[in-house]
Amino acid sequence: xxxxxxxxxxxxxxxxxxxPRVAVVGAGLAGSTCARRLAQAGCAVxxxxxxxGVGGRMATRRARWIDADGAxxxxxxxxxxxxxxxRSAAFQAFVxxxxxxxxxxxxxxxxxPGSHRNLDGLALWVGTPDMPALCRHVAAGLAxxxxxxxxxxxxxxxxxxxxxxxxxxxxxxxFDAVVLAMPPAQAAALLAPHRExxxxxxxxxxxxxxxxxxxxxxGPAPDWxxxxxxxxxxxxxxxxxxxxxxxxxxxxxxxWVVHATASWSQTFLESAPDVVQPLLQDALAQVLGRTPRWxxxxxxxxxxxxxxxxxSASPCWWDDALGLGACGDFFTGAGVEGAWLSGRALAGVMAxxxxxxxxx
Length: 360
Ligand SMILES: Cc1cc2nc3c(=O)[nH]c(=O)nc-3n(C[C@H](O)[C@H](O)[C@H](O)COP(=O)(O)OP(=O)(O)OC[C@H]3O[C@@H](n4cnc5c(N)ncnc54)[C@H](O)[C@@H]3O)c2cc1C
Description:
- The structure is a single chain.
- By secondary structure, the protein is of the alpha+beta class.
- It folds into two domains: 9-54 and 135-205 and 311-356, FAD/NAD(P)-binding domain (3-Layer(bba) Sandwich), CATH 3.50.50; 109-124 and 208-306, Polyamine Oxidase, Chain A, domain 2 (Alpha-Beta Complex), CATH 3.90.660.
- The chain has nine helices and 18 strands.
- It has helices spanning 9-15, 29-40, 89-100, 133-139, 184-191, 196-203, 262-267, 273-288, 335-350, and strands at residues 21-25, 44-48, 61-66, 72-77, 104-107, 124-127, 143-145, 152-155, 161-165, 168-169, 177-180, 208-218, 226-227, 234-239, 253-260, 293-306, 317-319, 324-326.
- Strands 7-2-1-11-18-17 form a six-stranded mixed sheet, with helices on one face. A five-stranded antiparallel sheet has the order 13-14-15-12-16.
- A hairpin with a 5-residue loop joins strand 8 and strand 9 (161-165).
- Helix 2 (29-40) packs parallel to helix 4.
- It binds flavin-adenine dinucleotide.
- The site of flavin-adenine dinucleotide has 35 residues, from helix 2, strand 12, strand 16 and helix 9.
């Protein structure tokens, strides 16, 4: 990723007593963090997301089903990031503060025998009571528009931006600056008319996919909480209720979230869900070493799950003349922490006061 960072005019506007209007598109951790810090620095920020809520890939899906006896069952599956860790002192301080606010908790899973991953002694963290809790906390109080996918950025004659969705302007507001905080392929589509060079770089980022199984089954619970199998199609197997803050309904069912490896997911990327689901159910049965009595199962395909590690020269993009920026995990590839660092960096470049802003 080439470096393209210059001094922002927004800081000048703030210093002159004018309130710059900024649209942040994407309310995952990168966008929420950037938006919060810009608001703290004095910008009027509007946050947009195509989903029904914030969180992005820090996601929890709720399910409800009725069994053959007419009993209603509920489940919550953390089907995006299962957990994350903190390496940098800055992110650790943010994590500690969020834990103090009750929206994150340390998770110390009992690992299945043979689980292979080495965490370098780092702690695992999860949102509580669900994964989007962290982004809800960071974005609390910001103007938020959900369920609208921005499909066009229009720069008007006066240099201000309007967001478009489904061939219409999205609201009446014009913005001094726009931030894109989404996976690179999605950002590329919006960037292309304005910064084709950025769009080209974004399109070239080889994001890794992930097929995820969410399943409930009756059978004895194992004496472990999570597994990192050494072989086969699975990367993560998590008993969702084993995470802190998740109440498990007392219906005798285990609720599992199962992430396939990136290579397996790539192989089956274009396969139909009804092809993938039984394969992942079989793989979970193998890990459990028994035949589950399935009560519920569904799969989700993350086309852009994980960004590759990158020695990117810049943690974000900012074009001062256009008032256009981008942030997200793909700048560094360091997962949740990388998303936070990128969102924070972009806010700091756009409005230097944001660099010192407290909290998120
Ligand atoms: C299955 C899985 C496992 C993972 N495991 C780990 C792990 O173990 N450790 C770790 O650190 N990280 C892990 N990650 C990665 C981590 O979740 C991401 O790095 C991080 O959440 C990215 O945050 P972000 O804000 O950059 O992007 P996102 O969270 O993707 O947020 C982007 C947001 O933009 C929105 N959006 C996109 N296009 C538009 C549009 N046109 N208009 C409006 N809104 C739009 C999306 O709805 C989304 O909410 C995992 C991810 C997945 C999916």
